[in-house]
Amino acid sequence: MAELYSDPGVRVETYRPEDAHDLADLFHAAVHGIEEMVYSANEREAWAPTPPDYQWWQQRLNEMNPHVAWMGGELVGFASVLITVKGHGEESTREGHIDCLYVAPDCQRRGIALALFNRCLEQFLAAECIAMTVDASKLAQPFFRRQGFEVVAYNRVSLRGEHLFNCTMRRNLS
Fold this sequence. Notes:
This protein has helices at residues 20-32, 41-47, 54-64, 112-126, 141-146, and strands at 3-7, 10-14, 67-71, 74-86, 93-103, 129-137, 150-159, 162-172. It is of the alpha+beta class. An eight-stranded mixed sheet has the order 1-2-3-4-5-6-8-7. The longest helix has 15 residues, at 112-126. It is globular.
């Protein structure tokens, strides 16, 4: 695995398909580790059904090719990005979107999300994106505010019979 970003104790590497099962479990644990007062048990189950659909995750992770964070030999987080082109020819611009960023619940507040975010930012800058966006959960909004994002829209997402709330946040890069 080629190392892409290094922080004290955190390595961010390229995705390996053999890690898909563990990443699905990490996602499930991260969502279900959110406190009841932030998202209810029903909302968390709608967001991350039990058990995870490992076949679906394998396909999704293969398509999104996420950055994967490791600490002390343990898989502790992952993030993925989308880059869209708006306009045509010389008038075109690129925007980056953080599709997902999850950290294992027992590893939060240790610089893992920041290491993953920095790798996403490097990818956006290399692609000459003019801005980046994220649809941040209630729990993630303070983290993204600290990274210079501002709320541009509040969203109500219907998922498996539940309504979850998040917000679209944006940070200019140019």
